[in-house]
Amino acid sequence: MLAKDLFRNKDDVKTLRKAIESLDVKDINIMEVCGTHTMAIAEAGIKQMLPKGINLISGPGCPVCVTPSERIDDICNLAMNKDIIITTYGDMIRVPGTRKDISLEKSRMMGADIKAVYSSMDALDIAIDNPDREVVFLGIGFETTAPAAASALMEAYKRKVDNFSIFSLHKVIEPAIRSLLESKEVKIDGFLLPGHVAVILGQKGFMFLQYEYAIPGVISGFEPVDILNSLFLIAKEIAEGRGEVKNEYTRLVSFEGNSAARDAVYEVFKPRDDIWRGLGMIKNSGLKIREKYSRFDAEVKFKIKLTDEIKNTPCKCGDVVKGLIDPSNCPLFGKECVPDSPVGPCMVSSEGSCAAAYKYRNMI
Fold it and tell me: What is the CA radius of gyration of the chain?
């Protein structure tokens, strides 16, 4: 199947392609910071459609991928406690730790009780149904999933479900974007901004790009036409020497975003410095459970001491999420590291850059 057969409106796509080609831009890098965009771009073959001189690079848009391998080790150690049920989104189960033989999947084979859930509320229900067991939910995600985790924790507090806790691995996207821009390791001329996160943060949450960095960014939907339209808007900003933040995803994203969701996150979590795979320690980029809810904090309840030491692994996922290399440039890609036997999280996650590149490697 040709990539163009995936589009709903071929005339719009042709018009956008011609519009992009007409712009006087050369050698520009546009980074997407959303794993769903990464998959959509690969599935539709959008990179192959763009004129030479416009380069799409993937950034830290997959929360599973930026979780450091040391945290996977911590989770797997916790999972071996026979009194604990680990609940998690399915993507986390096969992610390797600092060694390929460390993962929740391997822990399950050794007797750990690990359950895949669709939501934090599902995990809370498991805790209610198993009052004699401790149930730990792995809080993975950006601003999109943090409100739901906060709601589940507030419900546990209200109902006094004291055998429920959250291991918060949540991260926020703004500090990571700032880190990428300030490190200057990779040239970034514009951002394809994450639609799901923007539903919560609103366009307002990304205006720092315009006011502080003069870097153009467009909040985009996920249909191929959305993405191409957003890329045109970004390239047009660059061609005209402007650096404004625009919202293409107006059907779901407002300027203000979802204040109720942000209030729930603020009620339960507070900012903390956190480690990102590939990016290292980033100030105020993680979410820690506040003292009021500390009895539902797995770190506190089980005395988990998080290490700041970052171990070197053969996986080049860190370079991939920084936009330094394409997945195919990793020497393990498609060889030792494949979906059935992954070395790193970028090949495991359904939003991972390596998984997208491998799945659609033969896309025309």
Answer: 21
**Which residue carries 């330094």 as its tokens?**
324
Q: Is the pLDDT of residue 124 over 50?
A: yes
164-168 vs 134-139, strand pairing mode: parallel
Handedness of CA 256, 258, 260, 264 (dihedral sign): negative
* pLDDT reported for residue 7: 46
Per residue in 167-204, pLDDT tens?
999 999 999 999 999 998 999 999 999 999 999 999 99
Q: Which residue has the tokens 């171990």?
A: 311
pLDDT tens digit string along 4-21? Answer: 434 455 567 778 778 888
**21 secondary structure, DSSP code:** H
**CATH number of the structural domain spanning residue 203:** 3.40.50.11750
* pLDDT, tens digit (0-9, with 9 covering 90-100), for 319-359: 898 889 999 899 999 998 898 888 888 998 888 899 999 99
> Do 75 and 166 have their domain in common?
yes
pTM of the model: 0.90
Torsion over CA: 228, 233, 234, 238 (sign): positive
First to last CA, the chain: 8
Structural tokens at position 249: 């995803």
Number of domains comprising the chain: 2
State how far the Cα of 265 lies from the Cα of 141, in Å rounded to an integer: 12
Do residues 14 and 156 share a domain? Answer: no
Which residue range(s) make up the domain with 90?
A: 64-172+257-301
Closest CA to 290 of 261, 308, 257, 264: 264
Tokens of 360: 């659609």
d(C-alpha 185, C-alpha 78), whole Å: 36
